[in-house]
């Protein structure tokens, strides 16, 4: 290995560690709040929908799998759907209506009041994510954004925003999947280990259309 290659590796690792630690130090309460929202959604019989493009599409599929299968503990499967996986749906919508609607039409078809849409984008400006969030808000779906660079056009459409304010996409994506893993672990914690903390909220409106 050359000295240059080794330094590239170590600098990436150091920068990632600094960003990860700084993000969670500043945003632990927000991550915990979003996990409670996901747990309440599932406890009330709702489901979680994920969407994203490119690496964020992979994150969507990864996190949906963690909920449907399991994360760390043995527990029942939890209802989650990645809107990034059905090639026939994606290409049919893309061909007939355009790529901007590949997620919003699925939200129209699959989401019901009380569900949660988790939209993942490093830029916050993907047109198809913005359109999905608009439809979700119209249909009383709670909107959660996991973003970078301040949240972009997604920010005002997300009731809850987990923004990694950094411009280097690979590092933002690394923190995104760490956020996702913590959301899985904390959701399981509130549903199966600390359900009493959710109890006071179970009979309250979810907030999406009840301000």
TrEMBL record:
One record GO biological process: carbohydrate metabolic process
Amino acids binding Zn(2+): 62, 66, 173, 181
Keyword annotations of the record: Carbohydrate metabolism, Cytoplasm, Isomerase, Metal-binding, Zinc
Enzyme class: isomerase
Xref: InterPro entries: GmhA/DiaA, Phosphoheptose_Isoase, SIS_dom, SIS_dom_sf, SIS_GmhA/DiaA_subfam
Catalysed transformations (reactions): 2 D-sedoheptulose 7-phosphate = D-glycero-alpha-D-manno-heptose 7-phosphate + D-glycero-beta-D-manno-heptose 7-phosphate
Sequence ranges assigned to domain SIS in this UniProt record: 38-202
EC number: 5.3.1.28
Biological pathway: Carbohydrate biosynthesis; D-glycero-D-manno-heptose 7-phosphate biosynthesis; D-glycero-alpha-D-manno-heptose 7-phosphate and D-glycero-beta-D-manno-heptose 7-phosphate from sedoheptulose 7-phosphate: step 1/1
Superkingdom in the source lineage: Bacteria
Binding-site residues, substrate: 53-55, 66, 95-96, 121-123, 126, 173
Keyword Kinase: no
Cofactor note: Binds 1 zinc ion per subunit.
One MF annotation (Gene Ontology) recorded for this entry: D-sedoheptulose 7-phosphate isomerase activity
Pfam families assigned to the protein according to its UniProt record, in alphabetical order: SIS_2
GO CC terms in record: cytoplasm
Subcellular location: Cytoplasm
Family: Belongs to the SIS family. GmhA subfamily.
Record function comment: Catalyzes the isomerization of sedoheptulose 7-phosphate in D-glycero-D-manno-heptose 7-phosphate.
Additional notes on this entry: The reaction produces a racemic mixture of D-glycero-alpha-D-manno-heptose 7-phosphate and D-glycero-beta-D-manno-heptose 7-phosphate.
Name of the protein described by the UniProt record: Phosphoheptose isomerase
Organism name: Desulfovibrio subterraneus
């Amino acid at each position: 290995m050359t000295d240059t290659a080794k330094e590239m590796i170590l600098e990436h690792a150091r920068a990632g560690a600094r960003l990860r630690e700084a993000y969670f130090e500043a945003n632990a309460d927000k991550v915990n709040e979003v996990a409670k929202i996901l747990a309440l959604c599932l406890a009330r019989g709702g489901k979680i929908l994920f969407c994203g493009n490119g690496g964020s599409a992979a994150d969507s599929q990864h996190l949906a799998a963690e909920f449907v299968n399991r994360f760390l503990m043995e527990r029942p499967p939890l209802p989650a759907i990645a809107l990034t996986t059905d090639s026939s749906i994606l290409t049919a919508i893309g061909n007939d209506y355009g790529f901007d609607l590949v997620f919003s039409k699925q939200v129209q078809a699959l989401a019901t009041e009380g569900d949660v849409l988790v939209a993942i984008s490093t830029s916050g400006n993907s047109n198809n994510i913005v359109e999905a969030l608009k439809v979700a808000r119209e249909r009383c779906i709670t909107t959660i954004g996991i973003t970078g660079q301040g949240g972009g056009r997604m920010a005002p459409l997300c009731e809850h925003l987990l923004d990694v304010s950094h411009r280097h996409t690979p590092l933002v994506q690394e923190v995104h999947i760490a956020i996702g893993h913590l959301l899985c672990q904390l959701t399981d914690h509130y549903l199966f280990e600390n359900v009493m903390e959710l109890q006071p909220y179970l009979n309250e409106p979810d907030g999406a259309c009840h301000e």
